[in-house]
Queue: 4 jobs
Job 1
Amino acid sequence: MHQKQTKRKGGLSAETTLWEQAQAGCQQSLNQLMSQHDRLVHAVVRKQVLGDLPYEMALHAGRVGLWKAIRGYDPHRGTAFSSYAWLAIMRSVWMAVKDYHQETAQSQLSMSLTDQGQEPDWQWERRALHTYLRAAVATLPLRLQRILHFRYGWDGHQPATFTQIGAQLGITKQRAHQLHRDALMRLRQPAISYKLRSLLDKQSPTDYLILAAETAVWLQLRARRR
């Protein structure tokens, strides 16, 4: 994504000058950089689990993240802009997903609380967590669902080791471990986990920053396996 820089007088490159002009308030330079890196927004959005969030709304959120990245990027540090901007775009998309789904999640949670009746708080929370977790797991591909069922011994079965899971599915122990990690990371994506996050109060900016960093590492590991 980062274009080859052309040297100018005084040691500054055309690209560096463009960043400085955009960050100083030059709308033309900002528009040029936004257009130049718009493909990065599409690339990030296509890799996200959006749930019911419309694609165009996700693109808009991603472009807001791109704009923030352009404003905050320091070309003198030597970090590729695509690496710097990826997390900013992803965070912006996730916040849009969270906001889009949060009202529904809070409404469902309030209705469930109303129906709680005389049930003790701890018992209701345990039941709600179980229900929301099962619903989230049901959104995963069937093989990933089976991995989690085997691993955690759901439905009355004993928890299985990765060696045992591999034997059940006809894959290696290492592959079973990789698929287990894939399943957990998918479950943590905001569009899937928003009900659980609402119940557990795990929707702070810090929670999403941590998840964004972990997801970036996970995507890099998946890319290397291909």
Job 2
Amino acid sequence: MKDLIIIGAGPAGLAASIYGIRAGLDLVMLEKFSPGGQVMNTFEIENYPGFVEPVTGWELMAKMEEQAKRLGVTVENGDVASFQRDGNTGKFLIRLTDNRVMEAGSVILATGAAFRKLGVPGEEEFTGRGVSYCATCDGAFFRDKVTAVVGGGDVALEEAFFLTRFASKVYLIHRRDQFRGAKILQDRVLSSDRIVPVYDNIVESINGNSSVSSLTLKNKKSGGLSELDVDGVFIFIGYTPNTGYVPAELLNDSGEVIVDMDMKTGIEGLFAAGDMRSGSRRQIVMAAADGATAALNAYDYIISTQ
């Protein structure tokens, strides 16, 4: 049995592992795919403290992973199906999708969030054939082509600007009359001669035959429909918490794990950190801080039960 099991190896999970291992806890970190989380898909990060110049997402997360492993953190591949706490012993039993069962005295949930989908006709059909949720991954496929980005937050603005490295034109479609991303990002995209803002519009459908050829847009003010010819569309409209394995009584109406300022959930010894928890601002530095907070409080909990 482990002192602590951390589920998820994004910035929250990695930070938790670093603080936990340095506190002397016997811990393991479970990750469904590979360490790094959604940050791995981010081209450049310029607001993470300590980096004078922008750093790529994969480089930042690789350094976090290397740091954790240097300190002795073990990362195991595993997809969690469910977990429960034994009311008599206080131990957590974690069942994986391959039917393995692991035990721990405390658990930190740090499985982050996935990109939210539009839910419109054509989205599923053309995913991988013109529909993408990662400009860093797929931008090079659209060299000298016309693309669209849907969204108005920081990620949408960052990814739209990144696409100008390849695409001849980038339509930036937002449902409101102004973007909501940071001013520095708004200034950057609005000064680009390759980015065309399309305000007050939502995507009604994604159209094509073998691949994306156009979008049907609806103007929110007039209600009118229009066709926009594009070769691809990148969707950045927020996130859905990866909490499908978490009991419903621990979640809020948005599917996020409810926590207090110490990252404590409604179950003693269970903590949640990062993009999956209530009140998250979806920032890397904040996720890392969540992880550190959760690990320190998990340590206090474990010590109190020994």
Job 3
Amino acid sequence: MVETNFLLILLVGIFVGGAAGFLGSFMVLKRMALVGDAFTHVALPGMAIALLLNFDPMIGAFLALALAALGIWYFEETSRIYPEALVGIFFTTALAAGVLITPEPELLEALFGNIESITAIEGIAAIILSVVVSALAYLISKKLILGVVSEELATSVGISKRKINLLYLFLVAITVTLGIRFVGTLLMGALVIIPAASAKNISSSLNNYYLLSVFFGVASAIVGIGLTVIWGIASGPAVVLTSTFFFLTTFIVKTLVQKE
């Protein structure tokens, strides 16, 4: 891997990891961790259909994720069935269908990512979109949190919970699409959830929680990409296992502090 390409990949990892951590912080607070994990799986059939039709698989992934976001939003607003149950039925089915129809040469890359396949244009676009997504998430963050604390209070001050939730899910869809290249569809959900869960273990305030979520997302990407370069292993598992290490470390710290 040439130095220029490595620097680009590292920058993509930093910005996408940070965006994933920040978006994931709201998902953990909204208790949608299982939804967020399975949500990422629906990108696979979108990529598979795109490959079969000979156009960019990332476009197929985003279109599939956008439809999934609409589905989650609709069922949350209209159905009495728990979102986790709906996700367990439909989105894991989408993963199974994606595995069946994805061409075999591209299957492993789609599932576990391949950072070396990122082009300069894709890298720059990923960095810019990560900044835009993070900025939009920050702008709606207070409204999102108020909706988590009290839906009635949010409604009383004129906040449209339906619109905010839909925008948030679309931001997650964009972030997942950006991260698929180096983490893969099977593991991208972990990069959204685990950094936020790690931050929740040791954060002392809401702002501190946000910052730590971003920090663990960025750190997971940097260390995971470094391990990929040094050991020649798949980037997706390296990033996720690094993130899991941070979670276990913060959990141990939290446990020890509580015992004192």
Job 4
Amino acid sequence: MSVKIVVADDDKLTVSLLEHVLTANLFSVYSASDGLTALDLVWREKPDVLITDLVLPRLDGMELCRRIKEDSALQKTKVIVMTAVYGGSAIRPMARECGADDYIGKPINSTGLLEKLYKLTHGDASAGSK
């Protein structure tokens, strides 16, 4: 069974890169360019993971993460927040504040992202680290 991932980002290049990397690694990928569309996709598809930018139109990534984490019907959905706007020291507390399971900076390191996804979907059995 393929792992379902929703990607939420208004940057088409980032979405294209993520779709390419994730589908090449046999993930099922759904994408949205704003937070409200992403929330609708998460409700409809019940993905294993949401990867969301923090800065999104219509509903920012932090509020999107909060809504998912507060919804008992979506409790199994893991959330990775990503951003290029905030540095590593700032994204960590922001991710914690909204209930994200992990975070990643932009530009995306494909290997690092795949390691994080493996840990979130298969537990900590992988050899990689955050």
